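Hey, sorry to bother you again with one of my protein questions. There's a protein on my desk that I can't quite get my head around. No rush at all, and the record is pasted right below.
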Amino acid sequence: MKNSFLFLSMLLLACFKTQAQNEQTKVVLITLDGLRWQELFSGADPLLVTNTDYVGDTTLLKSTFWHDAAAKRRETLFPFLWKEVAKIGQLHGNRNLGSKVNLTNKMWFSYPGYNEILTGKADDTRITSNSKINNPNTTILEIANKTAKYKGKVAAFGSWDVFPYIVNEERSGVPVNAGFELAKGNDLTEREKFLNELQPKVPSPWGSVRLDAFTHHYALEHMKKKHPEFIFISYGETDDFAHDGEYDAYLKAAKNTDSLIKELWSFTQNDAFYKDNTLFVITTDHGRGTDPLSTWKDHGSKVKNADGTWLVLFGKGVRATGEVTSKEQLYTNQIAPTILKVLQLNKEASMLQSKPLRM
């Protein structure tokens, strides 16, 4: 009788513990490297979509992405974000309507941008290049992973091979699969084994950035297998195709990433661990130029307005306000304290100077 009572007590305790764990909000932080706010909010750029300097087949690209109305163009480019997320979440950064999101760092390129997103502060003294140097700053991934609550429940995936250094994988203990890394471990799924076999056989156009499909499916398999409570996923194709001056590939990559995000959301809403209990935060590490037109390919402190970014929020705890149409000023450094607060790491959040977002 005593053994039965003890077993029942332990079973109930395990159930309560699992329930409490499932009630804790999970976070999926996603970045689209170098995606301009102009395309997010207005779709294909009329000055670029038929420009033969940046498009191979202008007739095909225009038939695929062009509509006279900007609202229709953006729905065509980002169908998930505008047809679904706009109904359940928030989209910030349409500067044409007075909604502004800006970087606080003065570099306006990738490593400083990711440092700001992940640490909640700019570091224009030490983060001044995209070199592979271990980040001296502590990211929110590391902060979470160093707590008993989230130890071993944090992960990062990126297309760019500098992410192990940005996250400081060695010091933080956060597993980072980035660049052309393969999935590791003794418990690989059949899909992970297939990805490990396929990735070396599929050439990337770039030496330091893999195709986003590999980043995405490695991350998705990890979520299915390990159920991390905080995961960071960074897609990179938009930035690299833009640097190459290939506007058609840039648009196609943007639309593809929209479908990848939809797949992640669909997975979380059909998985008991994540269902109705996951916050999605999506942003970019920097903006791009517009004037002169050729600067759409570039960014950095010498490119006018390349500090203009954007922010999308949806899922657990987010008010469904849709596209923000009123004047506001948000900053990229507010993302880190917001996520720490959602993870109930309030003490850690209070140590950052930047203020959490009001969701």
Summary: The first helix runs from residue 2 to 23. The chain has 15 helices and ten strands.
